[in-house]
Specification:
Strand order of the largest sheet: 13-12-9-10-11-14-17-16-15
Oligomer: single chain
Distance between the termini: 36 Å
Shape: globular
Helix content: 25-40%
Number of strands: 17
Radius of gyration: 21 Å
Structural class: alpha+beta
Order of helices and strands: EHHEHEEHHHEHEEHEEEEHHEEHEHEEE
Largest sheet: 9 strands, antiparallel
Number of helices: 12
Length: 391
C-alpha cells in the first residue's frame, strides 16, 4: 500500500528543541522546500506519495518514467495512505503530520517519540563505542566521548586533552560542533554553557587527524537491524555535508580497505548489527546511519573511528546508496551532490552547463552516464540535488 514520504531536514533541529510547537529557521525551510522532491528517488513502494509544493520538471518526469519510478508529488493526503515515512521522527514531526490530516494511529505514540529523541542524542555515541569495546572488534578504539554537564567539567576536560571538540547533543549537518583552538576561553565557555543550559549536557571528544569521512547505513524493521550499505561522503570545513560517491558496495569497501584491514570493517559491521538490534530495533523502524572517520594516530597509522555519531533517520548517504544500487548500470559510477547558491540564476547556469557537458543516457531502466537533476530549479531555488554518472 502507498506510503507518504516527507523530506524534512529541519527535524534534527526540532529534536534539539524537544517540543511539538517548533518553528524552523528560514534556511531550514528553504532546504526543505528546494529538496522536497528528493523522496521520489528513494521511495520503496510503487505509487508512493511525496509531499511537496514543487512541480516535477519535464526532464525529471522523463527520467522517472525511463527508470520505472511511479511515485508522485502532491499536497493532498491520499485517502489510501497507510503509512508515513518522514525524513526523521520528533514531536514536531508528529504534530506536523497530524495537521496535514494523517490519522494518529499511523504515527508513533508520545513515549516512542521521547525514546527516539533520547537515542538520537550524542550520548548514544558513547554507549555504542562502549558496546564495541565489550564486543572486542580486534583493533584499537578511540577514547570514549564524555558527557559534560557543567562549565567546570568542560574546562577540566579541555585541559586534559591536547586537542578537543565539543558537540551539542542534538544538531544537524555540521552545526552544533565547536573546535577548541585556544583552550577554555570566553567564547568556548559561552558556547558550552549555552548548550548545557538548553540541552542538558555537551559532549567532549578528542579531536582526531581526519583522513576521510564514511558511514555504515543500517535498516531496522522493528525487530532486528541489518546492514544496508556503505557511504563515502565529503564535508566542507564546517563539517556540513556536500556530496557522496556513487559506486557499488564492493567498490566502496575496497576503497576503504585500501587504508585499513578489511576484517576490521567486517567485524565492526557485524558488531554494530548486534548492538543496534538491542539498542535501537525495539524503538525504531527505518533507516539509520553510523558516521565514521578514518584518522591518523601519532604513529601515522590510519585507523577507523567506528562511531562519530548515530543518525537515527534517513540520510543523504542512504539516498546515494539507494540511487547507486537501484539506478546505476553495472559499469557506471559517479557522484551525488547538493549544491547551494544564493543566486538562482547561477544555479540555473550550473544546471545548464552540467546538462550540456554530461548528456543523460538511460537504458533498460539503468543510468549508464550523464547528469540528472533530482530536484527542480524554480524562480527562487537555492539548493539543488543532482548526480553525475560516468561509464
Amino acid at each position: 500500500m502507498p506510503s507518504l514520504y516527507l523530506f524534512a531536514p529541519e527535524n534534527d533541529m526540532a529534536l534539539a528543541f524537544g517540543g511539538k510547537h517548533y518553528t524552523p529557521p528560514p534556511v531550514a525551510c528553504t532546504i526543505a522546500h528546494d529538496l522536497s522532491l528528493l523522496p521520489l528517488w528513494y521511495a520503496e513502494e510503487e505509487n508512493a506519495t511525496v509531499w511537496s509544493k514543487q512541480h516535477i520538471t519535464p526532464d525529471m518526469r522523463r527520467a522517472l518514467d525511463l527508470l520505472g519510478i511511479t511515485s508522485y508529488a502532491t499536497t493532498q493526503l491520499p485517502n489510501d495512505t497507510t503509512d508515513c515515512k518522514p525524513w526523521g521522527w520528533s514531536a514536531y514531526m508528529t504534530e506536523r503530520l497530524l495537521r496535514m490530516g494523517v490519522t494518529r494511529t499511523m504515527l508513533p505514540d508520545d513515549a516512542s517519540i521521547d525514546k527516539i529523541r533520547l537515542l538520537s542524542g550524542r550520548a548514544t555515541t558513547r554507549n555504542i563505542i562502549l558496546s564495541l569495546q565489550e564486543a572486542g572488534t580486534g583493533y584499537p578504539l578511540p577514547p570514549l566521548p564524555t558527557a559534560l554537564t557543567t562549565g567546570n567539567e568542560v574546562e577540566k576536560y579541555i585541559a586534559s586533552q591536547q586537542a578537543s571538540i565539543l558537540k551539542s547533543p542534538w544538531s544537524s549537518s555540521g552545526r552544533g560542533v565547536w573546535y577548541v583552538r585556544n583552550g577554555y576561553d570566553e567564547a568556548t565557555a559561552r558556547y558550552a554553557e549555552g548548550i548545557i543550559r538548553k540541552q542538558g549536557y555537551i559532549m567532549g571528544e578528542v579531536l582526531q587527524d581526519k583522513v576521510s569521512d564514511l558511514a555504515m547505513e543500517f535498516y531496522s524493521d522493528g525487530v532486528s537491524v541489518r546492514f544496508a550499505g556503505y557511504s563515502l561522503f565529503e564535508t566542507d570545513e564546517r563539517g556540513a555535508y556536500t556530496g557522496n560517491i556513487l559506486d557499488t558496495n564492493d567498490a566502496l569497501e575496497q576503497q576503504i580497505g585500501s587504508h585499513i584491514a578489511p576484517e576490521h570493517l567486517h567485524n565492526t559491521r557485524k558488531a554494530l548489527e548486534k548492538i543496534l538490534t538491542t539498542l535501537i530495533a525495539p524503538h525504531y523502524k527505518g533507516y539509520m546511519g553510523v558516521d565514521m572517520i578514518l584518522y591518523r594516530n601519532e604513529q601515522n597509522d590510519i585507523l577507523l573511528h567506528p562511531c562519530i555519531e548515530l543518525n537515527l533517520r534517513m540520510s543523504m548517504g542512504m539516498v546515494a546508496r539507494i540511487i547507486a544500487d537501484r539506478y546505476l548500470s553495472t559499469n557506471s559510477k559517479g557522484t551525488y551532490r547538493v549544491a547551494y547558491n544564493p543566486d538562482t540564476t547561477q544555479l540555473k547556469e550550473l544546471h545548464n552547463t552540467l546538462q550540456q557537458q554530461h548528456p543523460l543516457n538511460i537504458a533498460t531502466r539503468k543510468i549508464t552516464k550523464g547528469y540528472l537533476a533530482l530536484t527542480p530549479i524554480e524562480d527562487n531555488t537555492h539548493y539543488l540535488a543532482y548526480i553525475v554518472v560516468n561509464e
